[in-house]
User: Fold these one by one.
Assistant:
Number 1:
Amino acid sequence: EVQLVESGGGLVQPGRSLKLSCAASGFTFSNYYMAWVRQAPKKGLEWVATISTSGSRTYYPDSVKGRFTISRDNAKSSLYLQMNSLKSEDTATYYCARHGVTIAAISYWYFDFWGPGTMVTVSS
Amino acid sequence: VQMTQSPSYLAASPGESVSISCKASKSISNNLAWYQEKPGKANKLLIHSGSTLQSGTPSRFSGSGSGTDFTLTIRSLESEDFAVYYCQQYNEYPPWTFGGGTKLELK
């Protein structure tokens, strides 16, 4: 059974940093792209970052580019999100998700498994 | 690609059928997924490729559409179906983008 469990959320002041972790199990972690998706209170889902299987390629939306860094440790089946220069608008529940399925050499970039999320509150 | 869902809220009773619309700002072929969000549970992928049910998705769920207009239909609603539903496009990326969500409530 695929399981993704996030940790590391909490209350942090604006301008400070926080690092989220995601522990994966139930599948060969190193074979899959992984992602972070967030949901601000009473808002919809927003994709935050994606990382390739080896970690050599990363992708971010403009809203977090230059402030957030996604990384992974395949030996530990773990995904990370380093968040710097946090702003109040980064307040959200952050979800770890498995990103992309390859079928017959074609990749389909939906999120097929999600964790339950970890809450990040940026406030003074 | 901007994704617009409607309605934002929908009230229905068990046994009824409902439909949720998702419109893309440009053609996305059939590269669309639907997710279900329930309190205290991990988001669940219901449908991908516009109409393909993910393993474990009950057959009362169906997806249709291609290009810019898509629909999620739930037939014979059950109590466990009351949740928030999101669409997501994966035709042009990054960014991967979601609709604003539709909350399906018990009437």
Number 2:
Amino acid sequence: QVQLVESGGGVVQPGRSLRLSCAASGFTFRLYGMHWVRQAPGKGLEWVAVISFDGSYEYYGDSVEGRFTISRDNSKDTLYLQMNSLRVEDTAVYYCVKDEWLALDSWGQGTPVTVSS
Amino acid sequence: IVMTQTPPSSPVTLGQAASISCRSSQSLVHTDGNTYLSWLQQRPGQPPRLLIYKISNRFSGVPDRFSGSGAGTDFTLKISRVEAEDVGVYYCMQATHFPVTFGGGTKVEIK
């Protein structure tokens, strides 16, 4: 079955960087687009970014455009999110999500990121 | 695209029906003819789970008491007979127009 395991979250000061990883298994990773979605404490879902199956296309949410970079290594079945210039408002649980025909069909358990001084 | 869900909270009696509405600020019909409107369920303490995709298609393993309908800008999720395991927050989501956007969520709870 599909498994998505995020890692790399933690506590970081404002202005610093963090890189999240998502290890995928149970499906042919290189055939599917992938997303990052986040959820601030007690809040709803906010879409962060998407990358196409082959990495040729990326798109970002307005709040992270220019600061975050999504990437993937299909040889390692791994998705990444490089987060730079972090802000307090980036505090959230970050989910790695598989795309099937523009539906977010499989979600990881999430990795928490706290931005605080 | 702004996705507006109503009601924000829905107290229901076990075995009774529940209905959640989602309205988009623009038509969600894609140039390819599909409408990429999904519904997700988030149980307490769990990641979200896909229930319905492309308006009315139930995802694998989703009970048939869940159904989706609608077109254009107006969509509905119905739970025909609410069970205790249905407690949680439900989100609509559109992926027709990037950036992907979610509704604010509807909390379903038992009376």
